[in-house]
Design goal:
With 110 residues, the protein is of the alpha/beta class. It contains 4 helices and 5 strands. The chain has helices at 19-28, 50-53, 57-65, 92-107; strands at 2-5, 10-13, 38-41, 70-73, 88-89. Helix 1 (19-28) links the parallel strand 2 (10-13) and strand 3 (38-41). The radius of gyration is 13 Å and the shape is globular.
Length: 110
């Protein structure tokens, strides 16, 4: 797993091309980023579907319960099929914007 640290978030990228293993590694290494907003970069995965997105549902719920953002990036999936509990956007720029917006909402007490 490749981890890129930015000022407002970290980006997690799979370097083994195995989505199931990547989701498991994210969960197993949760303590490494529990205090950070997280972007999961899945742009390299074509044919990404709702079944794939659901691999990240549990860790997303845990992370969001800790008042931190968890955003998945993939441009291959229709947002209409994504469960409301997950945030999936088509670009890294949009993921950063979502995190900024959620940080602002948390600061305002929403």
């Amino acid at each position: 797993m490749k981890i890129t640290r930015k000022e407002e978030f970290i980006i997690l990228q799979d370097n083994k091309n195995n989505l199931v293993d990547f989701a498991e590694r994210i969960t197993e290494n949760y303590s490494d980023y529990r205090n950070d907003n997280v972007i999961v970069d899945l742009l390299n995965y074509q044919n990404f579907d709702v079944k794939d997105a659901l691999l990240f549902l549990e860790i997303s719920n845990i992370h969001r319960a800790e008042k931190k953002s968890f955003v998945i990036v993939n441009s291959d999936i229709s947002i209409d099929v994504i469960p409301d509990e997950l945030i999936v956007v088509p670009s890294l720029l949009e993921a950063g914007d979502i995190i900024k917006m959620e940080d602002l909402e948390r600061e305002l007490g929403f």
